[in-house]
């Protein structure tokens, strides 16, 4: 799977399982667009770590960032953005990864603990900047480039970007690596450019990630709400932060709900739509669900996933409108419905 792998707005207030590791140093804050996430010094533990579905040798990520102070040397390398290999997942200072770190208002690129390149001063404290990094892992032809607000700030390569024996990137981390000051994050995306054409084969530029919470029932309401009926089912799932106290569900294969969405902010370009569903089962025996995306009165489905008795976040990304195989627009997103279907397998 290539193209857009992940996006995060932080509007849901809790990570909801979208990150496989997040420290307690993560608090809601005023973001660039709506809510953001305030992160503080993590003692070399990733604030947010996302595991890629499949290891890759090239990854692009972008994040809106606001620092309260110039970075100082923390004594070890834990990057503001890190691309970790499997043998460096739990490494205290990411010696088995590529790191990009803000130090003295400059952006620095590291292979493990080896400094590879440093930018000029490109960061202003207490101001939002959109940081993007593309890293290609290779022992002789590797490259790393950092963009700040859509402009290339520093690059390295071709050269050795492989800090250990591993040949692929397995995790993308967004951190804050200093014991002074704070940092706020917002609007994150992760992209695999392999085999893609424009615009998915290069950094997307400063982006906005918006969360749309259901505000009406859609074309189908087969699931039964925790209120005991199938009326206004959207009201069972429209709370923030989400919980398992109210819900819609069924034991019957094929039962599904779709939900209407509010109008999105007017964009220049829509790069993709990520549907997040919060699922669990309540009884013994195997049960599955899959995401439903409804576009132009046609239902399209994601992968069926086995449920557990613990609520877990599942996500499916439609890079293009599945009804037309062309880019989404504000009109088609506003008209879309999102939901879930019960499956036996």
Q: What do these coordinates show?
A:
With 345 residues, this protein is an all-beta fold. It folds into two domains: 3-192, Sandwich (Jelly Rolls), CATH 2.60.120.200; 216-343. 2% of the residues lie in helices and 44% in strands. The chain is built from one helix and 25 strands. The strands form five sheets. Strands 1, 3, 4, 6, 11, 12, 13 and 15 form an eight-stranded antiparallel beta sheet that branches. A seven-stranded antiparallel beta sheet has the order 2-5-14-7-8-9-10, with no helix packed on it. Strands 16, 19, 21, 22, 23 and 25 form a six-stranded antiparallel beta sheet that branches. The mean pLDDT is 88.
Quick summary of this structure?
The chain is an all-beta fold. Helices cover 2% and strands 44% of the residues.
Order of secondary-structure elements: EEEEEEEEEEEEEEEEEEEEEEEEHE
CATH class of the largest domain: Mainly Beta
Low-pLDDT parts are none
> Average pLDDT value?
88
N-to-C CA distance:
22 Å
Shape descriptor: elongated
Structural class: mainly beta
| CATH fold naming of the largest domain | Jelly Rolls
Per CATH, which architecture of the largest domain?
A: Sandwich
Q: How many strand elements?
A: 25
Which labels suit this protein?
mainly beta; elongated; 2 domains; single chain; 25 strands; 345 residues; 2% helix; Jelly Rolls; eight-stranded antiparallel beta sheet
Blueprint of the fold:
Elements: E1 3-8, E2 21-22, E3 26-30, E4 35-39, E5 48-56, E6 58-67, E7 81-84, E8 97-103, E9 106-111, E10 114-121, E11 129-136, E12 142-148, E13 151-159, E14 169-174, E15 183-192, E16 216-221, E17 224-225, E18 248-249, E19 256-260, E20 273-279, E21 288-295, E22 298-301, E23 305-306, E24 312-318, H1 330-335, E25 337-343
Antiparallel strand pairs: 1-15, 2-5, 3-4, 4-15, 5-14, 6-11, 6-15, 7-8, 7-14, 8-9, 9-10, 11-12, 12-13, 16-19, 17-18, 19-25, 20-24, 21-22, 21-23, 21-25
